[in-house]
Amino acid sequence: MTYVWALICVLGLSGAQILFKLAANALNDTGSWFAPRTAGLMAAALSLMGVMTIFWIWVLQTAELGRVYPIMALAFVIVPAATHVLLGECFTPRYFTGVVLIMVGIVVTVGA
């Protein structure tokens, strides 16, 4: 169950990164940190990051850091995939080769 909570943390932290990108886009559009859209997205990103950090500390109470930390590398897969789908960002085939290698590394590391 610890690994499930660790995965939830990765998903939440990845979501926060997407929100940070949306906040950055809003800042470009509005030119102000205090514009409602920019401030709202920043608040959402920081809140999600804070909640996930609390969950992560809870995970670390029951697991060895060296065992669960490799799961954090999934963020290197989740965030780009989400930005491709949600924001239309493009990546090269070589990039996806790297993503596959990261996933293989996670499987090998967590299974060790």
From TrEMBL:
Matches recorded under InterPro entries: EmrE-like
Keywords attached to this entry: Membrane, Transmembrane, Transmembrane helix
Domain of life the protein comes from: Bacteria
Segments passing through the bilayer: 40-60, 67-87, 93-111
Name of this chain's protein: 4-amino-4-deoxy-L-arabinose-phospho-UDP flippase
Organism name: Lautropia dentalis
